[in-house]
Write a structure and sequence with these properties.
The chain is largely without helices or strands. The chain contains three helices and 15 strands. The protein binds 2-acetamido-2-deoxy-beta-D-glucopyranose (4 copies).
Amino acid sequence: MDILIKLSVIALLCGTRGLCQYEGYDYDTSYGSEPNDPYHPPFQFPQSLDYSDQAIIYTNDCARECFCPPGLIMYCDNRKLKSIPQIPSRIQQLYLQFNDIEAVTMKSFINATSLKAINLSHNKLKSNKVEGGAFAKLRKLEQIFMHHNDLVEIPSDLPSSVERLSFAFNKIVRINDRDLQGLVKLTMLDLCNNHIDNVKSKTLNKLARLMQLNMCNNKLHSMPASLPLSLMYLSIENNSISDIPEDYFTKLPNLLAIRMSHNNLEDIPTKVFNLPNLVELNLGHNKLQQAFFIPRSLQHLYIQDNELESLNMTIMCPKIDHFNTNRLTYIRVDQNKLKAPLSTFAYLCFPNMQRIYYGEQKHAEGETPKVQEPMLTHPLVSEEDDREGIPEYRHQEYGVDYNVNDYSY
Ligand SMILES: *[C@@H]1O[C@H](CO)[C@@H](O)[C@H](O)[C@H]1NC(C)=O
Ligand SMILES: *[C@@H]1O[C@H](CO)[C@@H](O)[C@H](O)[C@H]1NC(C)=O
Ligand SMILES: *[C@@H]1O[C@H](CO)[C@@H](O)[C@H](O)[C@H]1NC(C)=O
Ligand SMILES: *[C@@H]1O[C@H](CO)[C@@H](O)[C@H](O)[C@H]1NC(C)=O
């Protein structure tokens, strides 16, 4: 019994099975790989560039301010440029980051019809100086990177070929109905670090291939409306969202990861995350007082720094299906108000559990903090476990009359 209870405290082993890596935020590389800077998703230019005419050396058509090595790339980054230089029509990748460019006009890309990717990040782009339709004729354009500029709106009339768009670190206040129209190939939209306070428009719903939406560090007070069915990664950390409508996620069955840490969630419908494919759920740094249903597919759950006083297993795991076990392997619950480590029932319900990070819990004023000793432990309940080794345990604490020994592993 004691051993079972102490199983709940794990801190030191975090590294051994690589679970700590999920602390990092990075939707852009393949799921679960090394974390990168969350607000800086790596910009990937298309790999499959057409190099058939690479052997031909063009030099005389390159703008004076820039550098064009033989091939299809033009480097104009870090040159204090105030405007976009002339771009030869063969160029496919254009690096314009770290300049002082404020304007994009209809003329800017007039000849640059081969462009597949433009990096305009870290400039001074102003919405009133970005002409509507400036990008419209670039029919091969797949990626536009405009993070760290002064945009207050999403530029209009982007070409329908666009797959990845980054507008992080601007001053965008809203998504208008006409924005992002016809972008049926868009898979990634990064709007983190802007001033968006709500998404009411139905415009996102029409992005039929959108897989990843990042809206972290904005001013959202409610869940964004009308997200498309295709969505797999949703990042809305650090907004001011206080609730989630009960049926909100029922229209988003493809979601693999939801990141909502640093919001104001207090009460959420118990079954709101009942999603068939959800693998990662981060609700850390909210105000949750109640546990909620854990879908079978979920592997990593972050609920640290909330107001949880207990983790009601009847709610988290209403029934156990031994042929279809819950996949949860990692849960982080530190900085709550838990009075006791997780019930042993947790390991029965979540037989794949590898780590529970219990850490320190918040304590009332005047109380001395109870530091839980990190323990080297091993979840008892696994496929290989000797059934004889599992002590008989009647689980009554949660209103379930539950006899461990009735279950086969
Ligand atoms: C576009 O190409 C034409 C013809 O080569 C040239 O005269 C013009 O200056 C170019 N404009 C820009 C903005 O590159
Ligand atoms: C685009 O510019 C940003 C700097 O703002 C840089 O981090 C990124 O690597 C650039 N992308 C490529 C493919 O060079
Ligand atoms: C939350 O977002 C604000 C900007 O809206 C930013 O200043 C702050 O650093 C962010 N906090 C966290 C924890 O990311
Ligand atoms: C757990 O939740 C169930 C269902 O809401 C409730 O009946 C039960 O009293 C709760 N148990 C505890 C210990 O809070």
